[in-house]
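During the second half of the funding period, the structural biology subgroup turned its attention to how the target accommodates small molecules. The most pressing case was tryptophan, which had performed well in the primary screen but for which no bound structure existed. We therefore specified the complex as follows and requested a full 3D prediction, including the ligand pose.
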Amino acid sequence: MTKKRVLTGVTTTGIPHLGNYVGAIRPAIRASQNENTESFLFLADYHGIIKCHDPETIHQSTQAVAATWLACGLDPERTTFYRQSDIPEILELNWILTCITAKGLMNRAHAYKAAVQDNLDKDQEDQDHQIEMGLYSYPILMSADILMFNAHDVPVGRDQIQHVEMARDIAGRFNHRFKELFVLPEAKIEEHVETLVGLDGRKMSKSYGNTIPLFETEKKLQKSVNKIITNLKEPGEPKEPGESPLFEIYKAFATEQETQEFTRMLAEGLAWGEAKKILGAKLNEELAPKRERYNELTANPAQIEDILQAGAARARKEARILLDKVRDAVGIRALK
Ligand code: ADP
Ligand code: TRP
């Protein structure tokens, strides 16, 4: 039986946060521990330079994201773990896919559309003002990441579903026009996990500086939790889950039963301050052992680099086989 392939990446634009963990890292690690899967987990640093033009941030984030994957239980013996930019085959595939991707498909990508909307809202004459080609073509690079290893399942947060659907679309187009070489990938979403909201009320994202970082100290973690937006309801007043983003965070870390209990306590008037203490303790329970390992790992970056290089060698070997078939299918081959 061929094993199911699971693949996902995290962009290297900052320090991983609770949203990255519950949306992608935790489900991907769980899937990688299943006997019947083969997993490809990586640091999306070429995606990083789309959104972030500060070299130091990219560099530091690469270390933080790598240490996070390892601290959360990624076993580099079982998983192909690599840095995107160490696999030049991905960029070659990226170009071939660019040549068959409809421009109209990219016009519909939500990150690009949001940037255009931002220009329109600011009454910019040019709707593409300051929008770079990297952002525009971002879903093609993400497709190359996924298709390069013929992944079946892509664990991602809800904000990435559209991109995985685009990868599916592009794979189908290639298969139809040239040769059936690509698996059609599927986004895998955790049912009980919503897109977590950050401290400013927008999506929690490394790009917005509104996150609760995964591995800050217990004290700082509680301090961040205390900053989560709530309303002015007093202790004793009944509260609904939808009244503060803290509920969805709790839900992402708790069992169904614990979530029901928390809902009941809020309805019975639990004070927001108390709710935050309960949330802080819940987070710490899951994160504390991983935090310790994270701190050990970040103290030894050379060891992380060795792991990444070993992973890259494995990934490249795999990538080469498919890329040669792809090149051949489009007519790029030796003369004889
Ligand atoms: P960021 O927006 O923080 O830069 P990435 O783009 O690196 O995050 O996303 C890495 C993974 O984490 C993706 O699968 C994404 O869907 C998931 N993710 C990011 N933010 C959140 C969030 N707020 N809630 C749930 N999942 C998220
Ligand atoms: N674009 C994803 C994000 O910003 C990160 C990413 C890059 C990714 N390549 C990928 C996720 C391939 C899954 C599969 O969240």
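Two results from this model are relevant to the next phase. Strands lie at 4-11, 37-44, 79-83, 153-155, 186-188. The two ends are 37 Å apart (CA to CA).
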